[in-house]
Amino acid sequence: MVTMSWKVEVDGGTCIGSGMCAALLPEVFELEGATATVVEGEVKPDESVLDAADSCPAMAIEVTERGEVIGPRP
Predict the structure, then answer these.
(1) What tens digit of pLDDT does each residue of 30-57 get?
(2) How far apart are CA 69 and CA 34, in angstroms?
(3) What is the pTM assigned to this prediction?
(4) DSSP letter string, 3-72
(5) What is the mean pLDDT of residues 3-15?
(6) Is the backbone peptide bond immediately before 74 cis, with ω within 30 degrees of 0?
């Protein structure tokens, strides 16, 4: 059985530190100083991760699956 996972990255140069991602998913994101970071770079597929990417005001979160960008959604 193949276990699916998503890769999550925050662009530290783009992040404005709003903290929305950390508030939505503290198990995935944390706010360190003025920017957010990812706690775990790979996560189980979860709609909440895409919601966090969608809600980032700076569009600094990227979610990929097998190298294809799936978040933020258009």
Answers:
(1) 998 999 999 988 999 999 999 999 999 9
(2) 25
(3) 0.91
(4) PP-EEEEE-TTT-----HHHHH-TTTEEEETTEEEES-SEE---HHHHHHHHH-TT--EEEEETTEEEES
(5) 94
(6) no
Q: Which CATH code fits 6-71?
A: 3.30.70.20
Token code pair at residue 46: 């979860």
The pair of three-digit structure tokens given for residue 28, joined into one six-digit string:
């995935």
DSSP-derived pairing of the beta strands 68-71 and 35-38 = unpaired
Q: Structural domain boundaries of the chain? A: 6-71
Q: Which residues contact 58 (CB under 8 A, 6 or more apart)?
A: 14, 15, 16, 18
